[in-house]
Amino acid sequence: MAADEKSRAKTEQAKGKMKEVAGRTVGNERLTAEGRAEQTKGDARQAKEKIKDTLTD
After folding, report:
1. Cβ–Cβ under 8 Å, residues 45 and 8
2. Gap between the terminal Cα atoms of the chain
């Protein structure tokens, strides 16, 4: 399960980065903001998993 959550976090981060870059490229501020938000969500998920790993070791 932890590996699934970690891969989900990486996927969210990558999708967010792509949205952010696409938004900047076409000048769409909403898409850029969505991308940043998705990256932040992925970062939070990754941090949560790192904490869980630390506590279970």
Report:
1. yes
2. 16
